[in-house]
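About this split. The held-out portion is used to measure sequence recovery: a designer receives only the structure tokens and must propose an amino acid at every position. Recovery is the fraction of positions where the proposal matches the reference. Here is one held-out target exactly as it appears in the evaluation file.
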């Protein structure tokens, strides 16, 4: 039975990934530090049922803690799915050092340990935000990614660059997966699907940034997990792959869909588009389909 290390295991994508790994009879070594970006109780609830599974081992640890990570790696890990990160574009503008410390230095720690323990399959959870102000759509892995407009996006791009370097220098098999606006069960409370639904349902106002014409490529969590597990089993030397739905939805339409489902009218407060936000995300998924 292969042993898979999952970082950020109690988060939205991480908990779904752990669930599918267990369903496929992998042994899971899970790491999370339950940071307070959103309520840690939600994260603890995400993995509560897994704790009863004999193939699931959990460690509360921070990926910046190299000594603690080294102890965990002594459990003879076969492969790594690195999903731990400081999330969120807008908060990264207020705490850029924290974002680079976690998202870049933390990733470097894991790569160093992958090298040391000769772990030859490493999945890195990247983000569509690396495309930044790229004007070519849909976003292809062949497009330039030197126009990020938030510290979060820059930290994710830096993570990709470190991965490429370690793959080249130490012959590590590494796949960087660029996630596009993930939604679904156990979704993050700060993201629009959960946040807007909750506010509209409770007759509270929602904040709409801009004129409502911005677009996001909402991607269902099960499709993201399927992509992660496929990459895990493929052992690419080094690849960057978009995981998206390739069907961006305009913000105004997105709000109207929620209104119809809830049979309620949204109370909208219009605000300027914040710094760091992009106008559109739109994945070219032809590479993922191959």
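Reference sequence for scoring:
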């Amino acid at each position: 039975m292969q042993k898979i290390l999952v970082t950020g295991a109690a988060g939205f994508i991480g908990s779904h990934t752990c669930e599918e790994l267990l369903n496929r009879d992998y042994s899971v070594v899970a790491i999370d530090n339950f940071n307070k970006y959103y309520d840690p109780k939600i994260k603890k609830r995400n993995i509560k049922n897994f704790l009863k599974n004999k193939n699931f081992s959990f460690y509360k640890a921070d990926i910046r803690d190299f000594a603690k990570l080294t102890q965990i790696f002594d459990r003879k890990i076969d492969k790594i799915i690195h999903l731990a990160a400081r999330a969120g574009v807008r908060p990264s503008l207020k705490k850029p050092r924290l974002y680079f410390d976690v998202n870049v230095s933390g990733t470097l720690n894991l790569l160093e340990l992958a090298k040391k323990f000769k772990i030859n399959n490493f999945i890195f959870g990247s983000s569509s935000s690396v495309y930044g102000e790229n004007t070519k759509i849909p976003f292809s892995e062949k497009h330039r990614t030197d126009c990020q407009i938030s510290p979060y996006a820059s930290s994710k791009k830096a993570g990709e660059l470190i991965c490429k370097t370690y793959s080249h220098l130490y012959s590590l098999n590494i796949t960087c997966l660029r996630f596009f606006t993930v939604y679904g069960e156990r979704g993050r409370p700060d993201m629009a699907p959960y946040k807007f639904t909750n506010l509209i349902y409770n007759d509270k106002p929602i904040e709409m940034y801009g004129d409502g014409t911005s677009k996001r490529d909402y991607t269902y969590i099960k499709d993201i997990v399927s992509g992660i597990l496929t990459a895990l089993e493929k052992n690419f030397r080094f690849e960057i792959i978009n995981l998206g739905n390739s069907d961006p939805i305009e913000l105004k339409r997105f709000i109207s869909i929620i209104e119809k489902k809830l049979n309620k009218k949204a109370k909208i407060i219009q605000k300027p588009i914040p710094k760091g936000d992009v106008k559109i995300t739109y994945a070219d998924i032809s590479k993922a389909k191959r």
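Annotator remark: The chain has ten helices and 13 strands.
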